[in-house]
Amino acid sequence: MILESDPLAPYAMHPEDSAGRVHPEPPHRYRSPYQRDRDRIVHSSAFRRLSHKTQVFTGEMGDYHRSRLTHTMEVASLARTMARALRVNEDLVEALALAHDIGHPPFGHAGEDLLDERLGGAEGGHGGFNHNAQALRLFELLEVRYVEFPGLNLTLEVLEGQRRRADKTPDGSLRSPTIEAQIVDAADSIAYDAHDADDALELGLLELGELRELALWDEAARRVEDRYASLTPLELRRATIHELLDWQVSDLLGVAQQRLEELDLPSADAARSAPIVATVSRGVAGKKRELERFLFDRVYRHPLVLSHRMEATAALGELFDRCVADPGRIPEHYRQSNPGDEPRAAADYLSGITDRYALEAFRSL
């Protein structure tokens, strides 16, 4: 049993080993550098706006399903649990988790695709749009919270973790991240696999019987049924979600602890050059891929979801075009941050607004 008072492992990122910040600051009297990062992220305007940004389903589809903010909080919760069990830096893990989706525009990936298309993609003259890279722009440039420096002046470890999310290898894996960053990436996957299915069931886009045809979901449901008798469908659904989360986290911890024992990493720097340790077993990974393919085909491409996506992208696209045609619509701060580049200024501005604000602005045109 790992207790809260247990010291950090050698392979953890120790606060005293932090590389510091771009703009040097004196240490705080009673908060570690990563605690300060966490607080700066939570108090940022970009973080607050996540409460009114789409995770998968827009707000017009109801109020049960996850928003970008509630998803972020769930990821942070799972990540802290794993960090404590592996004796790595919980404050750094929490900061990375709270930061991981902060660059998302309104309407989720639909909004991201629209802005990326308007900016010409990664090879275009304006560099395209990627929510992970946009988070870095917020942290280093766009957020205005302090007199002494632009952005939030987060530690180089948090910026490194976010930069690795923005710069992935072709197969989608992170390159040599700290174990803290690995944990956040895994927690993100675990959270959305379970919760996107839960939200789709609540909205009536799926039936429980469909999910029982998938190995990961069916095995979790069988474990629940072995413990409890005569569950209602709603009780079974909620208990299965809990089991999915606990099973995947337990599986990951088992794999990670075995790999850490084999590698015997002496420092966080050694972990950066070692193979990935925070991952689920091969058997669970295969079942996760089956569930994710199913969610893509049956949920993310559901006609109702696509219909809302089309409405959302039409609204955001019209707002973007109006801003580029008339840069006076773009707040001065974004124009000053992007001199001579109205499309990028428009993207910086519009990516920061909420779903609700975007729709209200579109309807007022």
From TrEMBL:
Disordered: annotated span: 1-36
Q: Does the keyword rRNA-binding apply?
A: no
Q: Which CDD domains match?
A: HDc
Q: Which SMART domains match?
A: HDc
Origin, by domain of life?
Answer: Bacteria
One biological process term from GO is: dGTP catabolic process
**Keywords on record:** Hydrolase
User: Residue ranges under compositional bias (Basic and acidic residues)?
Assistant: 14-36
Q: Which family does it belong to?
A: Belongs to the dGTPase family. Type 2 subfamily.
Question: Can you say what this protein is called?
Answer: Deoxyguanosinetriphosphate triphosphohydrolase-like protein
Which organism encodes this protein? Posidoniimonas corsicana
Q: What is the lineage of its organism?
A: Bacteria, Pseudomonadati, Planctomycetota, Planctomycetia, Pirellulales
